[in-house]
Design goal:
GFO_IDH_MocA-like_dom; Dihydrodipicolinate Reductase, domain 2; Dehydrogenase
């Protein structure tokens, strides 16, 4: 029987604690050490070695590392892991801007390492089921994708606004479930809670086949909502990712006998089906996929290059909101720079946890 993979963890804040919980029960993996400048305040590691900093963490002969710190510090830690030859699963968003995201992806490419980003919604059972049904043509031609992601402000998020923190979920989901890139966006943002960064965004977009997208995202609502609705020629699919439910609303097939209503030529309400789908924790499935990728198996990880495309979309949203004009995500790959760890200030101390 082969020895378990040796995993490390950087950051023991809210997300870090969840990663520690999953890593401690993941078959084939042993969480051997973690680090956070504030220590393990919540006893998340349950006796696992607590390293003073990233340098000490790397002395534990890691097979891979999970990074769960504020977005602004992803690059500094990621460059150090790439230099040390350690694959990494990095929390989303990958970076606070497109230039940094591309450079971080290049660092892992240059080192020949597996890197993944924690876009956990891709492992939500409702969205996985939606993607499969769309691929099977359940809705026919697609018309529109609508998402609503709103709720109270999480105090742990202090370094980015709602677009990078929340809307990146929806921008990623939209292209993932359809398999089509986002070609244009028009957006408006506001800051209403006294923060410098935006806490509300309304985004209109278009996919490469002409499908329209719209996203409502905020940190201002007492109602927590995580909804994705895809409308097509045969009806619509609605995913509630808080509960992992997927419901199909079919167009009605009964003939219309009311002449006054028939002139509208619109669809009618048909059968409603809530699918019975297996429900497993998305974060656990994300870790299983990354473990399998490290072991050389085919696994559905979210690669750093895929995450770069999401940052490009988010940056286009912010540019549109700033200029009042539509924007096109900058998707072409940047020229490959020569990677030098020293260029990226790797000596920085391990940052506070997220």
């Amino acid at each position: 029987m082969s020895a378990p993979l040796r995993a490390g963890l950087v950051g023991l804040g809210m997300m870090g604690r969840n990663h520690a919980r999953v890593l401690s029960q993941l078959p084939g993996v042993e969480l051997v050490a973690a680090t956070d400048p504030r220590g393990d305040q919540h006893q998340a590691t349950r006796g696992v070695a607590l390293a003073a900093d990233l340098e000490q963490l790397l002395t534990h002969r890691l097979d891979y590392c999970v990074v769960a710190v504020p977005t602004a510090h992803h690059a500094a830690i990621g460059y150090k892991l790439a230099e040390a030859g350690v694959p990494a699963l990095i929390e989303k968003p990958l970076a606070p801007d497109l230039t940094t995201a591309r450079a971080l992806a290049e660092a892992f490419d240059t080192a020949g390492l597996i890197g993944a980003v924690g876009h956990t919604e891709r492992y939500n059972p409702a969205l996985e089921a939606m993607r499969l049904r769309l691929a099977d043509g359940a809705l026919g031609d697609l018309y529109q994708i609508t998402t609503r992601r709103q709720g109270p402000y999480p105090p742990r998020i202090r370094d980015v606004g709602v677009v990078l923190d929340l809307a990146t979920h929806d921008l990623d989901i939209t292209t993932w479930v359809t398999g089509m890139p986002l070609v244009s966006v028009a957006a408006r943002t506001m800051a209403r809670s006294g923060r410098i960064a935006e806490d509300l965004a309304v985004i209109l977009g278009e996919l490469s086949d002409g499908t329209l997208t719209n996203h409502i995202v905020n940190w201002l609502s007492p109602l927590k909502e995580r909804i994705t609705i895809v409308t097509g020629a045969h009806g619509c699919l609605a995913a509630d990712t808080v509960h992992g439910d997927l419901t199909f609303y079919a167009n009605g097939s009964a003939p219309t006998e009311w002449a006054a209503a028939e002139v509208f030529r619109g669809v009618s309400e048909g059968a409603i089906t809530r699918y019975a789908i297996p429900k497993r924790e998305p974060l656990l499935r994300e870790h299983e996929a990354f473990r399998n990728a490290i072991l050389g198996r085919d696994a559905p990880i979210v690669t750093l290059r895929q995450a770069v495309a999401t940052i490009a979309a988010a940056e286009a949203v912010l540019n549109s909101a700033a200029t009042g004009s539509s924007a096109t995500p900058d998707l072409p790959r940047a020229p490959r720079p020569r990677f030098s760890a020293a260029d990226h200030l790797l000596e920085v101390a391990t940052p506070s946890s997220r």
